[in-house]
Amino acid sequence: MKMPAPDQGTIARRSEIVEALRRIVPGEGVIVDEDELQAYECDGLTAYKQLPLLVVLPETTEQVSRIMRWCHENNVKIVPRGAGTSLSGGSFPLADAVTIGLGKFNKILDVDFDNRTVVAQPGVTNLAITSAVAHEGFYYAPDPSSQIACSIGGNVAENAGGVHCLKYGLTTNNLLGLEMVLPDGEVVRLGGKHLDAGGYDLMGIVTGSEGMLGVITELTVRILKSPETAKAVLMGFPSNEQAGDCVADIIGNGIIPAGLEMMDKPAIRAAEDFVHANYPLDVEALLICELDGPAAEVGHLIERVEQIAKDNGATELRVSRDDAERATFWAGRKAAFPAVGRISPDYLCMDGTIPRKALPEVLRRMREMSDKYGLRVANVFHAGDGNLHPLILFDANQPDELEKAEAFGAEILTMCVEVGGVLTGEHGVGIEKRDLMPVMFGEDDIKQQQRIKCAFDPDHLVNPGKVYPTLHRCAELGKLHVTGGRLPFPDIPRF
């Protein structure tokens, strides 16, 4: 994975940059020691490593603003970083860029049960939001598998999902407001505790922008009342195709579960060995379907889901008897990623989304790719919304295995687009999928996206080298294009 060549002029000015930032963040707020910088050399995409120029750890919005303003005025790049759990290299550091670590922004500022909102700093973990409101019977719906560690600010940057987002939406559906520092240091507020904001949907642009438009310093999120009843159904199938058909039939019958997850045999076995969730080991595929709401509704829907599963050949059907068993069902799924880490020295976690009806075909083709590349793959994914997470197992110490894993992953993502899906569901593009963007978008599409980047960051100083395989200069994107010797819309007055 090639990154832009570091600017040697910036690297030569390192001492000057350190001195300037220490005036803004005194004490131990600027990290320059090489051993200490190694903690920031990568994010969750550990296949690639690079020491940052330096790391600065601000504690206030005012400090972030001053850092951004100084870097803007002195043409120094910055890379925002939350908890560093990104699986696409979204916070991958650069040798000529200041990494702004937001770990000290770790406070919940306001809990408002009347308005059902929480105001938090970006370094607060996802799970901490729910923990802060659970005593009153509330929770925060988006729940990535990394929720115990991932930060809420990073969730916004990547538009994170989770097992319960099928019914309750992704981060973008649960975000009400934010405070953000623009590349030139200006502090802006978007939205608030109210349901809808007037004007352009700027929060929609910022959510999922992968840290390329500015630095978020505060968020307001929606919390929900915990459902009256929640039960999970564990369903085992003799083939991946039958499980995929069952998923399509559940949704096709108008049933929207709170969560609908799928695991194949390698993932089932790894999770069971790790968590001991009492998963059946004699099935090829496992579905976990959670239904919530009033008790009568949940009971009725469980009967319908069980019948659909039987019609698709389920050989194992188990309904959670209580909340403890329901939590156990989910424990294996939530721990699937670290569980797979116990059976392989390395793995790449892919993230593509497909139409649900394509699940059986895609799973079959992934098995063929596994044979082609000679690498195992374990499948764990949000089956209800077609968001795949194939885990490609490899050993980086073996010659060419990383390259084969990358080629395998690229073929999976290309296939996702071919069957009518998209390159990413929740992990973002980062550097992992950057060079695959032309598979999904034409040149004009990419240029139009980059025009938004230019509107926020005309000098391309914030998180450069991510998302776009070819970065156009903002002046070039602003040019008026002439086709066939004629201006577009010639009747519009020109100034």
Describe this protein's structure.
The protein has 495 residues and is of the alpha+beta class. It is 34% helix and 19% strand. The protein has 18 helices and 20 strands. The protein has a seven-stranded antiparallel sheet, with helices on both faces. A hairpin with a 4-residue loop joins strand 5 and strand 6 (117-120). The longest helix is centred in the C-terminal third of the chain and has 18 residues, at 401-418.
Describe what is shown at a glance:
The chain is of the alpha+beta class and 495 residues long.
The beta-strand count equals 20
Overall, the morphology is globular
Helix content: 25-40%
| Distance from first to last alpha carbon | 44 Å
Main β-sheet: number of strands, strand sense, barrel status? 7 strands, antiparallel
Which consecutive residue ranges, at least 5 long each, have pLDDT under 50? none
Query: Overall mean pLDDT score?
Result: 93
Strand arrangement, major sheet = 15-12-14-13-18-20-16
Name the beta content range.
15-25%
Q: Supply Rg.
A: 24 Å
Properties at a glance:
5-stranded antiparallel sheet; 7-stranded antiparallel sheet; alpha+beta; about 35% helix; about 500 residues; 18 helices
Write the layout of secondary structure elements.
Elements: H1 8-12, H2 14-24, E1 30-31, H3 34-37, E2 54-56, H4 61-73, E3 77-81, E4 97-101, E5 108-112, E6 117-120, H5 126-133, E7 138-139, H6 152-158, H7 165-168, E8 175-181, E9 187-191, H8 202-206, E10 215-222, E11 224-225, E12 229-237, H9 240-252, E13 259-264, H10 265-275, E14 285-293, H11 295-311, E15 316-319, H12 323-334, H13 336-340, E16 346-349, E17 352-353, H14 359-373, E18 377-381, E19 387-388, E20 390-394, H15 401-418, H16 437-440, H17 443-456, H18 474-477
Parallel strand pairs: 2-4, 3-4
Antiparallel strand pairs: 1-2, 5-6, 6-10, 7-11, 8-9, 8-10, 12-14, 12-15, 13-14, 13-18, 16-20, 17-19, 18-20
Helix pairs in contact: 9-11, 9-14, 14-15
